[in-house]
Write a structure and sequence with these properties.
The longest helix is centred in the middle third of the chain and has 16 residues. The protein is an alpha/beta fold and about 425 residues long. It folds into two domains: about 240 residues, Alpha/Beta hydrolase fold, catalytic domain (Rossmann fold), CATH 3.40.50.1820; about 90 residues, 434 Repressor (Amino-terminal Domain) (Orthogonal Bundle). Helices cover about 35% and strands about 15% of the residues. The strands form two sheets. It has a nine-stranded mixed β-sheet with strand order 1-2-3-5-4-6-7-10-11, sandwiched between helices.
Length: about 425
């Protein structure tokens, strides 16, 4: 396969069931200093996670060798409390970076909540590890350079499932949206840090990160109402998981579908899964859990989901399988379509969005179906949310991430400066 085909691999992501409002919990004491070891950052979570969303559990200074451009900054790896798709506390890791240059554009320094595109599910794949040069199989360091050069702080989540003994809950949007918002909360609790509670927040991500960004946007008003979110930018968004899965099955990019199936099982272990697998399926689960982006794509090149279960189950047959509560896999997936239940402030919608959104895709997109990206944008327009849309980048999936990076930075800069957004619905 051509090298370019391997490179067209930013991530598929989306979301599952969103829990009811989480009751407040007593805050965990903040660490007295950022002196945790790497082992402590990524240690398995305790049996019972205490504290409130965004509580900082541990941090350590980091040198982000995979952010090019030699931008002077202070950076930390962080371990913090978040909330999973069922409303329970979980523990997530990430990275915080703050430019050394003073913020001179009025008010407090803003922060970009960032979710990377697909990196893979192995423990070595965590974005915080890759930014620090501990493993290299990622492609978004230069995007963060643009944010930092613009003076923005960055709170980049790894997403749930990169602690010892875990697997990334790829495709689970509630996990992703919560982890993204809580990364901002945690960034403001670093001992000796300079970020303040009144700083504006922008949300950004592409592909898997784009889905996470929209889930962060949809959940912000209910889950993190104290955050002053000024805008969200999301590209390459797989808004309809079934359409996306159908296109991925048997394709050059079937590894994303493998990541998704294993990630969903990690979030919903009560649903039928392991017992359905053939020996080949059991090996496939191990492959997902151990590989990063390119390794997973190579292992599952052209693979079909029908070849991994004892009964040769198709996607449609898997969707029909019921769990202990009577819900099917299809129910879980369908009720998580991005753009469903959204509205403007005071609309009474389940997800109220009171800030502008920038959505985009490449003209030559070959991984995510155009129909689902276009439909997500249309859903936002029909809900009355100020939406800027651009689909004219002369690029395929991954290169659109890079090609749009300047537009994303400019969009967020305008929102931080209070400039009105011009939607083009």
């Amino acid at each position: 396969m051509r090298y370019r085909s391997l490179l067209t691999t930013a991530a598929l992501g989306a979301a599952l069931a969103v829990p009811a409002a989480v009751p407040p919990a007593a805050a965990s004491p903040a660490p007295s200093g950022c002196d945790a070891t790497d082992a402590q950052i990524y240690a398995a979570p305790p049996a019972e996670v205490t504290g409130g969303p965004g509580d900082l559990l541990a941090c350590r200074p980091a040198k982000l060798t995979n952010i090019p451009g030699d931008v002077p900054m202070k950076a930390w790896k962080v371990r913090y409390v978040s909330t999973d798709a069922k409303g329970a506390r979980n523990v997530v890791t990430g990275t915080v970076a703050v430019p050394d240059a003073a913020w001179t554009k009025g008010g407090s320094r803003p922060t970009v909540a960032f979710n990377p595109g697909t990196l893979g599910s192995g423990p070595q794949c965590a974005f915080s590890k890759q930014l620090a040069g501990e493993y290299v199989d990622m492609y978004e360091g230069a995007n963060l350079t643009l944010f930092l050069k613009a003076g923005f702080a960055v709170a980049a989540t790894d997403g749930a499932g990169y602690l010892d003994g875990q697997v990334h809950t790829y495709m689970v949007g509630a996990n992703a949206g919560h982890a993204l918002l809580d990364a901002v909360r945690a960034s403001r609790r670093i001992p000796g840090g300079s970020l303040t509670e009144d700083g504006k927040v922008g949300i950004s991500g592409y592909s898997e990160g784009g889905a996470a960004a929209l889930w962060g946007a949809q959940l912000a008003s209910s889950y993190a109402p104290e955050l002053d979110v000024a805008g969200a930018a999301a590209g390459g968004v797989p808004g309809d998981l079934k359409l996306t899965a159908k296109q991925l099955n048997g394709s050059l990019f079937a590894g994303f579908l493998a990541d998704a199936l294993v990630g969903l099982n990690a979030a919903y272990p009560e649903m039928p899964f392991d017992e359905l697998m053939s020996d080949r399926g059991a090996q496939a689960i191990k492959d997902v859990r151990s590989n990063c982006l390119y390794g997973t794509l190579a292992v599952f090149l052209g693979a079909r989901v029908e070849n991994f279960s004892k009964d040769g189950l198709s996607l449609e047959q898997i969707y029909a399988l019921k769990g202990p509560g009577g819900a099917t896999w299809g129910d879980i997936v369908d009720r998580q379509k991005l753009g469903a239940g959204i509205g403007t402030p005071s609309s009474g919608a389940r997800y109220e969005i009171g800030f502008p959104v920038f959505q985009y895709r490449g003209w030559l997109e070959e991984i995510i179906p155009h129909e689902t990206e276009d439909a997500t944008r249309q859903a936002y327009c029909e809900a009355g949310i100020t939406t800027t849309w651009k689909n004219t980048y002369p690029a395929e999936h991954l290169s659109t991430d890079w090609g749009a990076a300047g537009d994303v930075t400019d969009f967020l800069a305008d929102r931080f400066e209070g400039k009105p957004a011009r939607g083009n619905c």
